[in-house]
Structure formats: C-alpha cells, structure tokens
Amino acid sequence: MQKLRVDLVSDVACPWCAIGYRRFEQALEILDGEIDVELFWQPFELNRDMPPEGEPILEHLCRKYGKDAASMEQSQREIMAVAEELGLNFRGALERRANNTFDAHRVLAWAATQNRETALQLALFEAYFGDAKRPSDPEVLREKAIEVGLDGDVAEAIARSDQYADDVREAEQKFMEAGVTAVPGFILDGRYLISGAQPADVLVDALRQVAEENASR
C-alpha cells in the first residue's frame, strides 16, 4: 500500500476548510484503504490583525468584499446549505464573529503532539460555526480539549501563554512561501497543491495520481 503525506492548510474560522475536510473524508471513504494517507494540519490565519473581541461576521464580510449585507447574508446561507448537506453543524454561522485564531492554532499545535489535532479541529469548527463561540477563547479551548480527551488545564494554560507561537509562525511562513494564499489548501506529497474545497472525486483522482507516480519511481 502506498503511503502518502497530505498537508491541509486551514483556519478554524474558514467555513470552506470545514467543508473541504469533510469532502476529504469522503475521498478517503471512497479509497477505502487503497492509499495510506497521513494527514498533517497546517495553520493559516484569515484575520490575523483582528482584535480579540472580533467583529460581527456580516459586518466584516461587507467591509472586506465591498458588498451589501443582504448579498453577504445570502452567500453565507448558501455555504450553510452546503455544510448541512455534508452533515456539518453551521447553525450559528450567521451569529459568529470574525476572530483572530492564532491562540487556537497554538493549542492545536500542542494537540498534534498528543495525536488529537483532527479531533480538536473538528470540535472547534463546530464551536465556531455551530455555536458561534470564539475559537481562541481560553475557556472554549479548555472545554473543547476536554471534549476530545485532552487535558483542559493544559489547553487553557497554553492559550494564556505564548507556547507554540514560534512553531505556528514558522509553519504559516513555510506554507505561504509554498504558494498557499487562500484556504483550504491540500498539499500532496509536499509537491502538489490543490486549492479550495474540491469535491471528493477530484481529491480521489489527485491522490491516486500522486500515489501512482510515487509507485513508478
């Protein structure tokens, strides 16, 4: 069986990252063990200059894209419908605030050392899009860490410190230099970048192609 590394560059504040990961899961279900895929989450900040209190999401999107509130709400509802079809909880998507996620990424870096990063990523997606909670709130990080079997005290302590800050910044810089300017970004075998929340069949074809190339080396 071919082993294949996939780096998923993502932000917990990105709706298409949650959707993209679910489609990636669907691709793995289709492959059914055909390829041994090893996933590594990598950080990206959509709102790196956002203050801690954040900004109401529709207000933020209107300012960012120069569109009116009605059109931005419609686009958000369309995203919510896509998420719902995939079984994702986006019920709080319109109530969420645009937030900085640096502290969440630091706690996720720690979760990776405990082999619980994917579980925590998914819990934070649900906290943000489902419950409109702030993903970098130390108490939210504590709650979600406990939920996925991690030490909540450690998670909260990391969130209130600067631990893993250098690791996150270095990873962000590395993948920006690799050409990732928007998320989600799937990097296959460190060589091929697939941008956006592509359908499962597109991901299946790409994974198979790279695995076949590696097998023929």
From TrEMBL:
Signal peptide: none annotated. InterPro entries: DSBA-like_thioredoxin_dom (IPR001853), Thioredoxin-like_sf (IPR036249). GO terms for molecular function: oxidoreductase activity. SUPFAM superfamilies: Thioredoxin-like. Coiled coil: none annotated. It holds the Pfam family DSBA. Residues 6-207 form the DSBA-like thioredoxin domain. PANTHER family: GLUTATHIONE S-TRANSFERASE KAPPA, THIOREDOXIN SUPERFAMILY PROTEIN. This is DsbA family oxidoreductase.
